[in-house]
Amino acid sequence: MAEKMTTAQRFVLAVAILSAFVSFLDATVINVALPAISRELGGELSSQQWVVDAYLITLGSVILLAGSLSDVFGHKKILRAGLLGFGVTSLLCAFAPTIEFLIVSRALQGIAGALLVPSSLAIILASFSGASQGRAIGTWTAFTSVANIAGPILGGVLVDQLSWRFVFGINVLPIAITVILLAKLEPDHHRRPGVKVDVRGAALGVVALGLPVFALIEQANFGWSSPIVFVPLVIGLVALGGFLFHERRAAQPMLPLELFRSRNFSVGNLATFLIYGALSLGFFSIAVFLQQVAGYSATEAGFAMIPTSLLLIGLSTLFGRLSSRFGPRLFMTVGPLLAAAGFLLMLRFDESANYLSQVLPAIVVFGLGMAVTVAPLTSAILGAIDPSRSGIASATNNAVSRVAGLIAVALASLIAGSAVLDLAGFHRVSFVAALLFGAGGIVSLIGIQNPNRDEEPGTV
After folding, report:
1. Residue 11 has pLDDT above 80, yes or no
2. Long-range residue pairs from 96-104, CB within 8 A, at least 24 positions apart, any chain
3. Which residues does 363 contact at the CB level (< 8 Å), separation at least 6?
4. Which has the closest alpha carbon to 141: 122, 121, 116?
5. 141 class by beta-carbon count within 10 Å (0-12 exposed, 13-18 middle, 19+ buried)
């Protein structure tokens, strides 16, 4: 019989979910606000990409370092610092006078957001054990997944009824509540002796992510032959090689590469990269296309995605249970293929994007695919690693999904073929998103192994 969650554990789980929710929400809530931001502050597709990717670059490159900081200085301290930093930088974004100021503020916001995710997982790991720990992580994952999908809905309402600036200002209230709740948790454990922060790895990771993404975004403005593009690209790729070399030799690496010796962990993260890259590319493009081409309001564009949220909320637990019973391989194969079919249906969109005949069928098929995918994917990855390392495993998987998102959005203008997303460009982006989802399903079919029920986690 499943062990019941205590009141104290429910309280910890609530704090962990609230802490991470604002970070994940801000990664997608911005999408429907981009046209309004461009109208007020100026900038074309490349500026819109930077508003999204400035946040994702710092979030993705700092999230693993944040896990180390959490171990060194204490989970509560880092979580509190992240919450306060996120509140301050949200206000900077809300009052941004120029597009350049907003982009810099978004980068700072991403750093604060990175502090929230591993520390919120760490307080779960410190308060739960055994099967209850897996359920708690599953609940945390479900809510953060819903945050990714619900962001455009909330953003659309705020943009149309108030202003795009409230997309950022709305963060302050939940952050204030979470800081108050956080003070009621048990104190941090004493610092473990000998634990150090991988500063060199962190620096190499930021350069390895930031410069290639800069090149991918700006190639639409300057071309591949420009030194402004190819020099950062080359330096970034060299830094990536240096990062992998350093992490392999470091005594306390930011990213323990031996985790990838587990087949399900390595294959699961490859599938994550493909699936979440497709998700970020698709959502970025849908939000912009529905408003700038099809003439939807921000609220209409946000609510256009609500079937996906409903399917995720209603079916994720069911497919999580089915995955536990039958293994994750089938669901990690079928789910992404369904999501790919949803994006192929988007090739039927014309410039009017009629909701009932064109948008809704595609969104429902896509949403069903994501509902089938999310919980089994998390189960496969965390189930492949010993429970004592589930914190770094979770942080690694979250970093992979954020990096996939920022690279995919950076490629949007290259795939669309122009500085403005028109109908032909949207069709190209939808086709590429479908290919990425399909690749995620095929990788899972070939590489994922259903665990032997007699084996312990980490032996897959």
Report:
1. no
2. 96/41, 96/165, 98/41, 99/37, 99/41, 99/42, 99/43, 99/47, 99/51, 102/37, 102/41, 102/51, 103/47, 103/50, 103/51, 103/54, 104/54
3. 304, 305, 307, 308, 342
4. 121
5. buried
Nearest by Cα to 118 from 438, 359, 399, 335:
399
Query: Both tokens of residue 357?
Result: 């005949």
Residue 450 CA to residue 126 CA, distance in Å, equals 28
Compute the C-alpha angle 8/13/18, nearest 5°. 130
DSSP 104: H
Q: Is the pLDDT of residue 460 over 50?
A: no
User: Does residue 377 contact residue 268 with C-beta atoms inside 8 Å?
Assistant: yes
Pull the structure tokens for residue 431: 């086709």
Mean pLDDT of 370-386: 80
HSE-CB for 250 with a 13 A CA cutoff: 21
Residue 144 CB partners (closer than 8 Å, separation 6+): 17, 20, 21, 24
148: amino acid identity, one letter: N
Closest of 291, 276, 58 to residue 155, by C-alpha: 291
Q: In angstroms, what CA-CA distances link 101 with 106, 313, 423, 460?
A: 9, 36, 31, 47
* CB 223 within 8 Å of CB 185: no
